[in-house]
Amino acid sequence: ERFADRSLLEMEKRERRALERRISEMEEELKMLPDLKADNQRLKDENGALIRVISKLSK
């Protein structure tokens, strides 16, 4: 029984470390979100400008 308790405890510790790593990864991804949103908006704006230029050239 003691061995089973110990291996269960080790398994829980491993799971906890894995979850903590995943949380850290997700926190890093969240930090990047504002930059990604800004890049996305800039690309949308550039795309709109290019579409306007192309439509003027094709008239």
From TrEMBL:
Say yes or no: keyword Repeat present. Answer: yes
Answer whether the UniProt record assigns the keyword Lyase to this protein: no
Q: Name one GO cellular component term.
A: A band
Stretches of the chain forming a coiled coil according to its record = 9-46
Q: Which UniProt keywords apply?
A: ANK repeat, Coiled coil, Repeat
Q: Which segments constitute the cGMP-dependent protein kinase interacting domain?
A: 6-59
Q: Write down a Pfam family by its short name.
A: PRKG1_interact
The domain of life for this entry's organism is Eukaryota
A Gene Ontology molecular function term for this protein is:
protein kinase binding
Which InterPro entries does this entry report, sorted A to Z? PP1_Regulatory_Subunit, PRKG1_interact
- Database matches in PANTHER family: PROTEIN PHOSPHATASE 1 REGULATORY SUBUNIT 12, PROTEIN PHOSPHATASE 1 REGULATORY SUBUNIT 12A
| Name of this chain's protein | Myosin phosphatase target subunit 1
Q: Which organism's genome codes for this protein? A: Ovis aries (Sheep)
Task: Read off the lineage from the record.
Answer: Eukaryota, Metazoa, Chordata, Craniata, Vertebrata
